[in-house]
């Protein structure tokens, strides 16, 4: 494991809002090409952690290194270059409501000097088809799409610049089980075909089973433990035990193994 390339390296992160300490001396490594699922109780600081890595939240202490660049000391140009190498999909897709899906996907590409508008459109259409949306979805406005389609459109925008890393904040929240399963498969396929590293905040146990290579548990203001799903089952900590051994976890595990059996048939 240690010889794998680290694309995100957090050390000694402290995030505090007033008297509330959300993270204290938090360390985390994310490896190239993996899908890391980040879990933790409500309010444990998963979203704040994501925001810290993408530069939307400046930690009170600690260092954030992404793709070998120290984010906190980087100048504006370096930071911009770095930001072009990752894509972020927030919970509701966070699309601009006044733009069509295609125009939304084109937004990150507008920063590329000299890119022909027609090529930009074509590239946007390519991303739209990559996330499993029909060509015609490109002309629609976000309000004309279902929640699942909006999430796919948000993912298309996150992929606009062929990033090394994508950050997904609860991508399957609010989707019906079939839509959620479809989204899990999409993430898995895209990660494999594009060699993407995926940082995925989720509450969804099915997603953890179906999609994630490794899991990081946020508790007690730090990353308490990282490892595979199998490793999680061995962790002797009340919250971790309850989460991975509770009734929902058992249902997700049996569905995961049933799927594996069906694949093996
Ligand atoms: N900008 C802010 N100002 C003040 N407090 C904040 C801010 N952002 C987050 N917090 C607090 O930090 C804590 C962690 O929030 P965060 O959204 O990261 O939790 P989470 O683990 O993502 O929760 P959930 O699973 O419910 O989405 C919460 O108590 C929240 O109220």
Automatic annotation (TrEMBL):
Residues in ABC transporter domain copies: 8-245
This protein's name: ABC transporter ATP-binding protein
Keywords of the record: ATP-binding, Nucleotide-binding, Transport
Annotated Gene3D superfamilies: P-loop containing nucleotide triphosphate hydrolases
Origin species: Marivita lacus
Alphabetized GO MF terms: ATP binding
């Amino acid at each position: 494991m240690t010889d794998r390339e680290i694309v995100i390296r957090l050390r000694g992160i402290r995030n505090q809002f007033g008297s509330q300490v959300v993270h204290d001396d938090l360390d985390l490594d994310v490896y190239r090409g993996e899908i890391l699922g980040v879990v933790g109780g409500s309010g444990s600081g998963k979203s704040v952690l994501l925001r810290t890595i993408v530069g939307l939240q400046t930690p009170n202490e600690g260092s954030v290194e992404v793709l070998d660049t120290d984010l906190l000391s980087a100048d504006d140009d370096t930071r911009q270059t770095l930001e072009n190498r990752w894509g972020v999909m927030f919970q509701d897709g966070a699309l601009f409501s006044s733009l069509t899906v295609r125009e939304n996907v084109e937004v990150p590409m507008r920063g590329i000097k000299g890119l022909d508008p027609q090529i930009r459109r074509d590239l946007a259409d390519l991303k739209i088809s990559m996330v499993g949306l029909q060509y015609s979805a490109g002309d629609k406005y976000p309000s004309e799409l279902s929640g699942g389609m909006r999430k796919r459109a948000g993912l298309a925008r996150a992929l606009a610049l062929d990033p090394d890393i994508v950050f997904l904040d609860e991508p399957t929240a609010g989707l019906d089980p079939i839509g959620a399963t479809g989204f899990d498969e999409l993430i898995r396929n895209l990660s494999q075909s594009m060699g993407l590293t995926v940082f995925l905040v989720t509450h969804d146990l099915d997603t953890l089973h179906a999609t994630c290579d490794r899991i990081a548990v946020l508790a007690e203001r730090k990353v308490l433990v990282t490892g595979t799903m199998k490793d999680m089952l061995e962790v002797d900590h009340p919250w971790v035990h309850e989460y991975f051994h509770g009734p929902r976890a058992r249902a997700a595990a049996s569905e995961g193994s049933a799927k594996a059996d069906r694949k093996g048939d």
